Amino acid sequence: MNQVDKVYLDLCNYILEHGTKKEDRTGTGTISVFGYQMRFNLQEGFPLLTTKRVPFRLVASELLWFLKGDTNLRYLLENNNHIWDEWGFQKWVESNEYNGPDMTNFGIRSQKDEEFNALYQEQMKVYQERVLNDIDFAKEFGDLGNVYGKQWRSWEGADGQTYDQIQYIIDEIKRNPDSRRLLCNAWSASEIKNQQLPPCHYAFQFYVLDGKLSCMFNMRSNDVFLGLPFNIASYALLTHLIAHECGLEVGELIYTGADVHIYSNHIEQIQTQLTRESRKLPTLKLNSEVKSIFDFELNDIELVGYDPHPTIKAPVAV
Predict the structure, then answer these.
(1) Contact 203, 195 (CB under 8 A)
(2) What keywords would UniProt list here (predicted)?
(3) pLDDT at residue 196 tops 70
């Protein structure tokens, strides 16, 4: 079994065996543990799970969205990426402008009521089309507030200045690779009330040794089945991109999670995944002609040799 699937599935087993039932904001319910760490050697292949298909283009387009400093869903929708739609949709249906069918608790109701799910899908399509085609609507209801892209690229300091944390990290790696300050923070106490979803992966730090770049990312809350495979791949891609610009190889990716949980309606899916044998990890190929990570587009990033087991579908808890 490859090291990525093994370490991830070990976590799944650990939660099922040692986790505690815990209620949550979404009302779905979880099995949760507090505090867990995983390590991945990026030299052994790109850490994208093979025991189920993880859509890499969605991972890549989301990361490029962050790196652009963007917080509006329009870019994601233009790239057929819908992983943030529910949070923007929630903002719309809870506003005074919305006058359609009642969408209260749409995340849970759509899973249990086929008739309601049809209405929900219809309203979601309306929302997506308006974000894509109505600039004013997109500004008001497509923007998720000061989430990752804003905090990464335009952090607002107490001194009234804005700071580009990603550019600082790149410049500092080139200038002083032994620095212990290669850190980006997305958690701002004063901004939480303005964020549709406060950052789950709230901080990350880089470390350079022997010409290799390693990264550790921290998560306050983590949906193990749907979210974590994306998070691992996203921070691995970020590490590759920064290493590319700084002329380094990649080293380790380290995950540290606080409330690490499996949603109660994902247990069957996890159990299915646990029965599968892993396959060879893919490799990542970046366009060598692109020098700055801020200039990368989707077509400059290629995943080679990815042959996973089929997708396992599961509902998103909103």
Answers:
(1) no
(2) Cytoplasm, Methyltransferase, Nucleotide biosynthesis, Transferase
(3) no
Q: How many domains does the chain have?
A: 1
Q: Is 184 a catalytic residue?
A: no
pLDDT tens digit sequence for 216-258: 999 999 999 999 999 999 999 999 999 999 999 999 999 999 9
d(CA 277, CA 258): 28
* CA end-to-end distance (rounded Å), the chain: 33
Confirm whether residue 74 is marked as ligand binding: no
Query: Is 214 a member of any domain?
Result: yes
Going from the C-alpha of 102 to that of each of 89, 93, 97, 127, the distances in angstroms are: 13, 8, 13, 14
Q: Buried b vs exposed e over 198-218: b needs ≥16 C-beta within 10 Å? A: bbbbbbbbbbbeeebbbbbbb
Range of the domain at 237: 3-84+144-304
The Cα 91–Cα 3 span in angstroms is 40
Q: Tens of pLDDT along 108-146?
A: 888 789 999 999 999 999 999 999 999 999 999 999 988
180 annotated to a ligand binding site: yes
Tell me if 25 is assigned to a ligand binding site: yes
How many CB atoms are closer than 10 A to CB 59? 24
- Is position 188 within any domain? yes
Establish whether 136 is an annotated binding residue. no
Mean pLDDT score across all residues of the chain: 95
**Is there a domain that residue 159 lies in?**
yes
**Residues 12, 200, 215, 246: which is the catalytic one?**
200
Q: Is 13 annotated as a binding residue?
A: no
Cα(10)–Cα(270) distance, rounded to whole angstroms? 12
On whether the pTM is more than 0.85, the answer is yes
What CATH number is associated with residue 66?
3.30.572.10
